[in-house]
Amino acid sequence: MSYPSLKKITLTGPFEAFGKYRSLTLAMSKRELLGRYRGATFGLLWSLISPFLMLGVYTIAFGYIMKSRWPHTSDSTGEYALILFVGLIIHGYFAECLVRSPTLITGNPNLVKRIIFPLEILPWPMVLSALFHVAANFIVFACLHFVFKLYVPLTIFLVPIVVAPFVIFTMGVSWFLASLGVYIRDIPQVTGVFATAMLFLSSAIIPVDTLPEKYRVIFALNPLSFIINQAREVALWGHLPDFAGLTLYAVGSAVFAYLGYAWFLKTKRGFADVI
Q1: What is the pTM of this model?
Q2: Which alpha helices (DSSP H) does the chain contain, by range?
Q3: Contact 264, 176 (CB under 8 A)
């Protein structure tokens, strides 16, 4: 089987595979989503219950016990919970993809042996399944927003525009980790710790404005922080996003996804030998 060289991979290459195998990708996404909750009493409802439980834990810990409040907002625990919820939705999506990516190939050895199977599409079903949970959680968020504030900002419909560049970035991460997970079997042990670090070193649960100046750069370099902040602007506070910032983020994400995809194609020729 021949593999395209780096020179032959266009910038849209990472998405051409999805378009070419769209039916297969969507079928795998549906199977993964339904299979995840197969046998569970509440089925797909767990996609809504789980974030609610996590939100409850953080709200009680930070909102009631520690009496934490977000700067420049009301003293309402409800608003604080909404702020946390947006951060947890974005982080939860990334953490799921981050933790699962290293085992995408090693967990499907039968597909690796099939020469004609396009292994490069394996991250797509995982990402699409995770995006389903993002959409479900933002619907719940909108309901909670109405309960606490008696209105829902129309700018919430801009959330997909905010999230789209982050999805592209996540695909790049997934291709890199899926390949590395084949050759370095310790990767899955590290990603869980890294996902937790990404939570506490982002603006998901910590207001960056309250931190000493010397630490803010760490949070600013976290790829989650910008997306979380922009998601809050449109979903919570009714502001337009930073389109210039999103454009730069999208360009950087596209380049990163291209590199991840190229790396995956270059290294996948050795998967069968290792597995």
Answers
A1: 0.91
A2: 13-20, 22-36, 46-58, 77-100, 109-112, 123-149, 159-183, 187-200, 213-221, 223-235, 243-267, 271-274
A3: yes
Q: How many CB atoms lie within 10 A of CB 255?
A: 14
At 54, list the tokens: 């996590």
Domain ranges of the chain: 6-274
Percentage of residues in the chain having pLDDT higher than 90: 64
Alpha carbon distance 87, 97 (integer Å) = 16
For the segment 47-78, what is each residue's pLDDT rounded down to a tens digit?
A: 888 877 887 887 788 778 877 778 878 778 88
Among 88, 256, 273, 103, CA closest to 191: 103
Q: Give the lowest-confidence range in 38-47, 153-162, 253-262.
A: 38-47
Q: Please state, rounded to an integer, the average pLDDT across all residues of the chain.
A: 90
Distance CA 149, CA 145 (A): 6
